[in-house]
Design brief:
This protein is of the alpha/beta class. It is 35% helix and 20% strand. The chain contains 11 helices and 16 strands. It has helices spanning 2-17, 19-30, 42-54, 124-143, 168-173, 224-235, 247-262, 311-324, 348-361, 376-381, 406-424, and strands spanning 60-63, 69-75, 87-93, 114-115, 118-120, 151-157, 181-184, 194-197, 199-208, 278-286, 296-305, 332-338, 341-342, 368-370, 386-388, 403-405. InterPro entries: ArgE/DapE, ArgE/DapE_CS, Bact_exopeptidase_dim_dom, Peptidase_M20, Peptidase_M20_dimer, Peptidase_M20A.
């Protein structure tokens, strides 16, 4: 116990003393415009490989494509046998969503500057602030030669923002990294890691029409776009699906609703999404020319699925609603597919990380559910307990003027370091 307390104090002191290094690492990561699409991770990956090399850590590169690199770097522990080893995976992604119209930003989205207590730039919250913390904490453990009893592996993936198929699932399905637990540095509240996510059901449908001269519509021709609009209206009823919520998640849903109601900046009514199917009409593509009656229209829908509803049942209900609206089509799945999933609070990695948040912050911490989806579902598919915790200004994620509070970046780095110490143990 004495050794553990000494290492804990040493790590906290080192992070306080080297805050500028941590922030410069975060700035450097943001300055790589690793937008996805197109998803070219080579430059930022090479930078990370070199950074880890300075601390004596080797990195294995697994290329899913010529431009998308998965990185695995493991800090080996001192356990007596593999069967007794705990193996903790720290996971982060290098890709960010496109910055969009640069003229609408108040600053260069790839500046990586610190102003007024915030780290600025695309990815500051999602999730280069957290990624920097994971890398920095792991390097610190390596440089100080902390005698961990288990393995700590950095898994850094290139493809999360467009579905993630070439990232975490690609690596886990091939057994390229092993873990008894995992932490993903996705953005969260400073006191509230996310321990579960809603399911996803992305689908699209195509409506056929009859072309004609635009000057004669609606007398001549049948507009596929008008028909699709009726389908869009009908699909709003997916919200009315009643979930059969399992007993074991009812309490965490109650906690998460309360958190959403009281969270600073939360949209009024957002707590309702935890027990409803949400429906977002993401894209509409139809027609060939403004003066031609549209002969085809394709609509893509992003639906998120609560506990107690199967995503396949959502697909089935969507087909029924379209048919009831008089639209003969069949929905087709694409992208994210899967049911709601979680890691219970009693799992050691959850209780350990929550305890470290409380210790570092001096405030009560607890896990909540997330209404979005993430790579966490892939870890759970492989029976690896996982949760998410990272610095963020949540209102700026995927939006203009993305930023993250500097104090949260530092706090998260401390939590990552102490959680590895707590979960893996010290020789």
């Amino acid at each position: 116990m004495t050794d553990s307390i000494d290492w804990k104090a040493r790590l906290l002191q080192e992070i306080d003393n080297r805050q500028d290094e941590l922030l410069e690492l975060c700035s450097a990561l943001i300055r790589f415009p690793s937008e996805n699409p197109p998803g070219d991770s080579r430059d930022i990956s090479q930078f990370i490989i070199a950074y880890l090399k300075k601390a004596g850590m080797d990195t294995t590169v697994h290329e899913t494509t010529e431009t998308m690199w998965n990185l695995v770097s493991t800090l080996g522990g001192a356990a007596s046998s593999d069967s007794e080893k705990k193996k903790l995976i720290y996971c982060g992604h290098t890709d960010v969503v496109p910055a969009g119209d640069l003229e609408r930003w108040d600053f260069d989205p790839f500046c990586g500057e610190v102003r007024d207590g915030y780290m600025l730039g695309r990815g500051a919250s999602d999730m280069k602030g957290g990624l920097a913390g994971l890398i920095f904490a792991t390097v610190l453990l390596a440089e100080l030669k902390v005698p961990l009893q288990g393995d700590l592996s950095l898994l850094i993936v290139p493809d999360e923002e467009t579905g993630g198929h070439l990232g975490v699932p690609w690596v886990l399905d091939r057994g390229l990294v092993e873990g008894t637990a995992a932490v993903i540095a996705e953005p969260s509240g400073p006191l509230n890691p996310t321990i579960g996510q809603k399911g996803s059901c992305w689908f699209e449908f195509t409506v056929e029409g009859t072309p004609g001269h635009g000057s004669l519509s609606p007398v001549v021709g049948v507009s596929a776009i008008v028909k699709a609009a009726k389908g869009i209206e009908a699909l709003q009823k997916l919200w009315d699906i009643k979930p059969n919520i399992p007993n074991e998640v009812q309490e965490i849903i109650r906690i998460s609703k309360d958190y959403a109601i009281h969270r600073e900046g939360a949209a009024p009514g957002s707590e309702q999404v935890f027990d409803h199917v949400t429906v977002n009409i993401g894209t509409i593509e139809g027609g060939t020319k403004v003066n031609v009656v549209a002969d085809r229209c394709t609509v893509q829908v992003d639906s998120r699925v609560p506990f107690g509803v199967d995503y396949l049942a959502v697909m089935e209900r969507a087909n029924s609603l379209l048919l009831e609206a008089g639209i003969e089509t069949t929905v087709q799945p694409f992208g994210f597919q899967g049911n709601a999933n979680w890691t219970p609070p009693h799992e050691p990695i959850v209780s350990d990380l929550v305890e470290m948040i409380s210790e570092v912050s001096g405030q009560e911490a607890y896990g909540v559910l997330q209404w979005a989806s993430s790579d966490a579902r892939h870890f759970r598919k492989h029976h690896i307990p996982v949760l998410q915790y990272g610095p963020a200004e949540l209102s700026t994620i995927h939006g203009l003027n993305e930023k993250a509070p500097v104090d949260q970046i530092i706090q998260c780095a401390k939590v990552y370091a102490l959680t590895a110490l707590k979960y893996l143990g010290v020789k």
